[in-house]
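Hey, quick one: can you model this chain's 3D structure?
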Amino acid sequence: MILKGFNELKMFLAKPRNIVIVGHRNPDGDAMGSTLALKHYLDKKGHKCTVVVPNEYPDFLHWLPGSKTTYRFDWQNNQSQKAIKGSDIIFLLDFNTLHRVGSDMQNTLEKYTNDFAMIDHHQQPDDVKYMYSDVTICSTCQMVYQFIEMSNDLDLIDKDIATCLYTGIMTDTGSFRFRSTTSTTHRIIANLIDKGAKNDKIHNNVYDANSYNRLLLLGQALSNLQILPSYKTAYITLSSDEKKRFDFQKGDTEGVVNYALSLKGIVLAAIFIEDKEQKNIKISFRSKGDFSVNKFSRNHFNGGGHDNAAGGKSSSSIAETVTKFVTLLPEYKKELETSYEN
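Sure thing. Here's the predicted structure for all 342 residues.
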């Protein structure tokens, strides 16, 4: 764990400040839950807070309390720029390095002259003045809860804060099934329910709000599933044409890679998604046991993340990217064989 400048940050926040809270590009449940929860908390402390995210986030997260006040940097650029330039400090949540916000927003943040405060659980974070970093914690939302706890303000957690935090913890732990879900996580979840988080409603809003086209896209993804039993590996591909055929919307591929990982005997799973707008292939990796997809992605696919969940990208075609992935597997065969005991 890295806890840098916490007391100084508390002193800085002892009087009202203009604060911007930033999440990473393509925000997920943990990014939106943590940024909105921190906003609600700091607002209650007397600050003026604005959440700015780089681009659109999934429709199944738009119901979160405070979502309607969020600025999108790509769409509401003037408002976002004004908020950033007028802020006394920027909180960076759920990402470890500025390039995770995309090049346009990165250029703006790199010109920022005030200080950053980072709350994040990804490996190898950038060095900023104030930092709370812990790669052992399951989600940034849990870290925001513990940040509030360290500030002796748990009594300020209300239904809105509890709902945002519950959402991020739930989504980043795969509904509490990943290895990073600890007894501490469950105690925090229990307290969030006591504070007003409606667990059944939250689960329904996130997981049971599929469109018809999203289910058809899932069917296409599963029909593209390939299994490599010799390497305990499975992967899925989705082309831009397939996405277009089923009216792809932001968030429609969220969690699809987990279907590949759910196969008996599979240790490593990947999904390769073609993005014609970004002119690259977006990759998500998942693993069981000791096989680190963080290291695998950092070494080969310009990415990173956590040991059992990471992302990457490729500027090659989807076919070339998959070929590269498959070609690498013999090098890791022993690690994959010994990573996880079923």
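One thing worth noting: The mean pLDDT is 95.
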